[in-house]
Design a protein that fits this description.
It comes from Streptomyces sanglieri. Pfam families: Glyco_hydro_32C (PF08244). This is GH32 C-terminal domain-containing protein. InterPro entries: ConA-like_dom_sf, Glyco_hydro_32_C. The protein is mainly beta and 43 residues long. Helix content is 0%, strand content 28%. A two-stranded antiparallel sheet has the order 1-2.
């Protein structure tokens, strides 16, 4: 399992953001938010 990469897909898969994260040893979580006209949702 890759524990350092994050991929975000938007627009029904038309847009992708990929990044690598290197959290500190005490980090235990992650938070996401959306800023725009449409609220973030999941199917």
């Amino acid at each position: 399992m890759d524990t350092s990469s994050v991929e975000v897909f938007g627009g029904d898969g038309r847009v992708t953001i990929s990044s690598l994260l290197f959290p500190g040893p005490d980090d235990q979580g992650m938070a996401f938010y959306a800023d725009g006209e449409r609220p973030a949702s999941s199917p």
